[in-house]
Amino acid sequence: MDFSIEAVRGKFPALSLTDKGRRRIYLDNPAGTQVPQAVADAVSRCLLTTNANLGGYFETTIAAQSVVDEAHQAMADFLGATSPEEIIIGANMTTLTYHMSRTLGRTLKPGDEMILTRMDHEGNVSPWLQLAEDLGLVVRWLPFDEKSWQVEEEALAGLLSSKTRLVALNYASNLTGSINRVRSLTAIAKRAGALVYVDAVQFAPHGLIDVQELGCDFLICSAYKFFGPHIGVLWGRREIIDGLKPYKCRCSSNGLPERFELGTPQIELMAGLTAAVDYFAELGAAAGESGSRRQKIARAFGVSIAYENPLALRLIDGLFDIPGLTIHGITDPKRLADRVPTVSFTVEGIVPETIVRQMNAENIFLWSGHNYAWEIVHQLGIPAEQGVVRIGIAHYNTAAEINETLESVHRVIAMLRQQRS
Questions:
Q1: Where in the numbering of this chain does the Aminotransferase class V domain appear (predicted)?
Q2: Counting Cβ atoms within 10 Å, is residue 20 exposed (0-12), middle (13-18) or buried (19+)?
Q3: Which pLDDT value is given to residue 177?
Q4: CB-CB contact of 294 with 382 (8 Å)
Q5: How many CB atoms lie within 10 A of CB 320?
Q6: If the chain, 421 residues long, is cut into consecutive pieces of 10 residues, what is the mean pLDDT of each piece?
Q7: Most CB atoms within 10 A, among 24, 305, 314, 319?
Q8: What would you measure as the largest C-alpha separation in the chain, in angstroms?
Q9: Using CA atoms, how far apart are residues 132 and 109, in angstroms rounded to an integer?
């Protein structure tokens, strides 16, 4: 079988945990996924057997360097990079983006323009907004289309000018789930001479990333969103990052990628990062792929997408049955390829948190709020202090879990409406 849900779930110890005998349903995945046993083992093994700083000549420091090198190569394979020297690993997406924004700021001058979207997570907005404030840059806002739920090429083209220096885009929304056509958007921006910075945090767990095909200059993701540890990864095109001067200690390395990786690295988390990438490779191998790690990863996404999409469709169909409920995102079954399985909704007259609290009490884990999709809720006119109910599927979830979740949504909303009447 190409995809065995039983085999997949067997790799994740957290999926079998119970609380006072009650099962857990993990649908909080857009905020962070559970990890396979292999990831936890890799972190533990690194701490217990290769725990040393880098740069020495004894066994543990040499082994620690191998862990670091392996992590960079693993992510080069995961993202389709040409070299591990293009992979920058750090604390998280937001920290890395702040760091890179300040580095790029050294190349900008007052009056230069950047384009930000109304669709992005705040981690790909605030660093650039604050940089613009510091340097006297001009920010132009790119809304998403509320019919297609995507950023449209014509809208981007209309904002570009000879002064545009950077376009910050997201690959997939953490609220609507919509996938942007990053390749075509990037091509338009590049024709205007702008750099393109892509937030792929929400796309990375659900689709194969090929930075060469996309044509962007930077792409960032977070390992804890694709079954790994809490660590961030930034890819930068070699010819771009080679010419940048980052903020760093005077005596630290000027090599790539070291000059962008501040301080002592999280070596044990890098071990877990490699294990997370290898989890995808193992999934691809189980589906019949015997080629390179990159080829196995591609196969893994092929089978996991085919498994996730019917679950997303079942969730969307089940929510449609509820009067007064609005799904904020793509609902057309013919357009499942244009979204990841993250589904957000609001219900007329009911505060999202009240729904989520009741469902959390049933050990169904999901989120309410704006979820840092600050610009999205404002464009849609959703009160930011309330936000949405967000349900996020990963490929370890089951049809039975989706059915049980839908039953809970129906029951909770009916109860809350009865209490209100």
A1: 25-403
A2: exposed
A3: 98
A4: no
A5: 12
A6: 92 98 98 98 98 97 98 98 98 98 98 98 98 98 98 98 98 98 98 98 98 98 98 98 96 96 96 99 98 98 98 98 97 98 98 98 98 98 98 98 98 96 78
A7: 319
A8: 73
A9: 10
